[in-house]
Amino acid sequence: MPPVPPPDSPAPRPSAIARRTMLGAVAAAAASAPLMTGLAAPASAAPASASPASVRPRALSGGGDLGPNVLVFDPGTPNIQATLDDIFHRQEAAQFGTGRYALLFKPGTYSGLNAQIGFYTSIAGLGLSPDDTTINGDVTVDAGWANGNATQNFWRSAENLALVPVNGTNRWAVAQAAPFRRMHVRGGLNLAPSGYGWASGGYIADCRIDGQVGPYSQQQWYTRDSAIGGWVNAVWNMVFSGVQGAPAQSFPNPPYTTLDTTPISREKPFLYLNGSEFRVFLPEKRTNARGVTWGNGTPRGTSLSLSQFYVAKPGVSAATLNQALAQGLHLLLTPGIYHVDQPLQVNRDNTVVLGLGYATIVPDNGVTALRVADVDGVRLAGFLIDAGPVNSRTLLEVGPSGASRDHSANPTTVQDVFVRVGGAGAGKATTSMVINSRNTVVDHTWVWRADHGTGVGWDTNRADYGVVVNGDDVLCTGLFVEHFNKYDVQWLGQRGRTIFFQNEKAYDAPNQAAVQDGNVKGYAAYKVAGNVTSHEAWGLGSYCNYTADPGIVQHHGFAAPNTAGVKFHDLLVVSLGGNGQYEHVINEVGAPTSGTSTTPSTVVAYP
Asked: Where is the signal peptide (predicted)?
């Protein structure tokens, strides 16, 4: 249905055919010169130099400064607005640039700021509660760089701040990989760009929005464990779990999917200041969660001193990072690009790997970027994995093949960990993300085979599978997976659950034969294996936009065994402007899409 504006607002533009390829690749390179030295942390020490093979490497020290691209402000810092504007100028259109920045605000009150957030930029408060750090002003994402089209506003974030918007409503017009976490907006939140242009997002968690949230032209959105003053409208797929003030369940008219609680959640780790000391807070696990974690001020959980982290800088070797992990240190990846010639290996229970400012790991020579052993409570958060030009069999592996330990009491969490194949250059990977460990929680990911940028083509950035889940009892909350050559998501584990799924099939499939799955036309976007007896999912959408051959037919968006224990709720498929068609929604169920209409075909319940 078309967006519904509030009274006296301009009518939004329709969200049909809102796709990125219409813009082409906008890839202005970002300058990455230092702007301000990061605040020093305790226990500072430089990494030891490599030792001769016969000598054991010197122990690495934890702590240290956060590097030149972490900017730390306090209320007395001069020229804050000028610094923010300088970074935005660098990053506004730098979709595939090399600049990476984290903007950190010490607790206190700041006035008269408009922090415009561009690519690879994170803004965050350094208190334990968002209300510890108040900006009388805005944290803004708009789409002026793309002529009002927000469908490419990727890779940026806001976290742990209270905002008092100048005009009463803050604008956050984003697409994928742009989380809005632990924010308190003392007013409304507008998720559309100026002029109500196209938009394709997005994700909110652990936030309190005192006023209404207006998605307007946003095609889809997932909101988790939050409190809102209301929700204005829906286009295709709006999903809520554990949200106070969420609209009632009504899919498909309007397309609201509303769960009263989130079965399992554990908020993302975050950096904060305890006096003058940096620490990393680790929120505790919640079951059947609803509302924010910080409603009474201090959230529940534990914290670690920065001295327990190896504070990594770009240029460090994978061997050094693995030495730090083997020593028992956690990893804090400061903003920048990290090339690794061997997998980063997380073997210890409760290890934290936390990135700042979209720190990016690039595997060289076809290695896997990061592997996690079959251990309890690992937390991976806040970084991007970018495939290299030599094909990697996998890019991220959570647990080894055959992992079977029960981690229900202390699961591994993968949060705001994003994967990209192509776009910034040639990249290949057979499978991007493999989840083998039981009970893993994947909370907000965008796994993307690039449809624009450089190094893009059906075989140039070949990537057959996006996410493969082999482990049992895995939960995904906020799953965005797009454009893979075969299955975008393939689920083989038992008792899996997904709350919200957004997908586009690969634009560049050259012909019907290229996507033929045996005797089935097209690979399903989300396939549950035939031997799975228990699975459940809510609020899933798949879109086709076969621009290379608009005549391609996709038999269905979703495939699953037809058994009582495998349940789907609120499914849709959409043909974008007639570039390809779906014959069904799931298996043989659901009406076909037709013509150039972007009206979804829906199924409320399966079987």
From this structure: 1-45
pTM value is 0.92
Strands lying side by side in the sheet with 213-214? 169-171, 188-190, 213-214
Which of these is catalytic: 397, 504, 536, 588?
A: 504
267 noted as active-site residue: no
Q: Strands 277-283, 301-305: parallel, antiparallel or unpaired by DSSP?
A: antiparallel
Q: Are residues 470 and 568 in the same domain?
A: yes
- Angstrom distance (rounded) from CA 349 to CA 260: 32
Nearest Cα to Cα of residue 419 among 440, 392, 399: 392
Residue 423 lies in a domain: yes
Neighbours of 234 (CB within 10 A): 25
Residue 125's pLDDT is what?
98
DSSP state of 325: H
Say if strands 520-521 and 516-517 run parallel, antiparallel, or are unpaired: antiparallel
The residue ranges of the chain whose pLDDT is under 70 are 1-55
167: exposed, middle or buried (Cβ count in 10 Å: 0-12, 13-18, 19+): exposed
3-class secondary structure, 546:
coil
Please tell me the distance from the alpha carbon of residue 106 to that of residue 89, in angstroms, as a whole number: 23
pLDDT digits (tens, 9 = 90+) for 495-507: 999 999 999 999 9
pLDDT the model gives residue 170: 98
Q: Is the dihedral of CA 36, 41, 44, 46 positive or negative?
A: negative
Q: CB within 8 A of 298, min separation 6: which ones?
A: 128, 129
Half-sphere exposure of residue 124: CA atoms within 13 angstroms, side-chain side: 28
Single-letter code of the amino acid located at 204: I
The Cα–Cα gap between 266 and 269 comes to 9
Decide which of 208, 239, 260 is a domain's last residue: 260
The total number of residues shown for the chain amounts to 607
Read off the tokens for 241: 């779990």
| CA-based nearest residue to 501, from 523, 485, 482, 528 | 482
* Amino acid found at 102: A
User: CA 216, 219, 222 angle in degrees (round to 5)?
Assistant: 95
In the numeric block, the tokens 């249905």 are attached to 1
What range defines the domain where residue 496 resides?
350-606
Residue 91 backbone phi and psi in degrees, to 5: -105, -10
Query: Is 280 inside a domain boundary?
Result: no
The Cα-based distances of 121 to 159, 175, 178, 482, 594 in angstroms read 11, 14, 10, 23, 40
Count of domains for the chain = 2
Residue type, 175: A
Tell me which DSSP letter residue 454 carries.
Answer: B
| φ, ψ of residue 141 in degrees (nearest 5) | -125, 125
Q: Which residues pair with 397 in a beta bridge?
A: 371, 434
Read off the tokens for 446.
């965008």
CA 545/CA 536 separation, integer angstroms: 27
Do 122 and 159 touch, CB atoms closer than 8 A? Answer: yes
CATH number, position 145: 2.160.20.10
CA separation for the pair 106, 376 (Å, rounded) = 32
Which is nearest to 597 in space by CA: 572, 576, 569, 566?
576
Peptide bond into 590 cis (omega under 30): no
